[in-house]
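I'm stuck. Please check this protein.
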Amino acid sequence: MQVQRAMSVEQVDLTFGAFAKCCQNTITVGYRDASTGTVIASIEIPTQVIERAVLENASVEITLLDDGQVASAVTGPASDCFSARTSVSIDHLVDAFVASHNLHKEEATEAELRTLLGRLHKSVVAVERTIRLLGGKAK
């Protein structure tokens, strides 16, 4: 004679949540139980693999706007997933570049800075010339 026991089955309500943890050389992605924080499944992926996959078919477009803003945008299949458009003024870029802590990192020489200064002067002359031309057309 066989005796069967009725096993009580408790309803377990698991709520999974996706997570990503970035380290210097790897990214760990997976799922964890939201109520306990216990990792259910995860995988470590080298950051270079992800960067290559995201940037493989992407292109960067940089545009100088008429008000002195430099706008950049990343276009490609992955660009729909994140906001990839930014803009910054030319003077802010130059200020950030010539900040003493940045110059130390970039190891910029005086000759390189003089070249930059010369190019900025040429830019100013070109803008002034265009303003004069536009001013003559407005009369």
Observations:
- Helices lie at 47-55, 90-98, 100-106, 110-138.
- The chain has a mean pLDDT of 83.
- The longest strand covers residues 26-33.
- DSSP finds four helices and six strands in the chain.
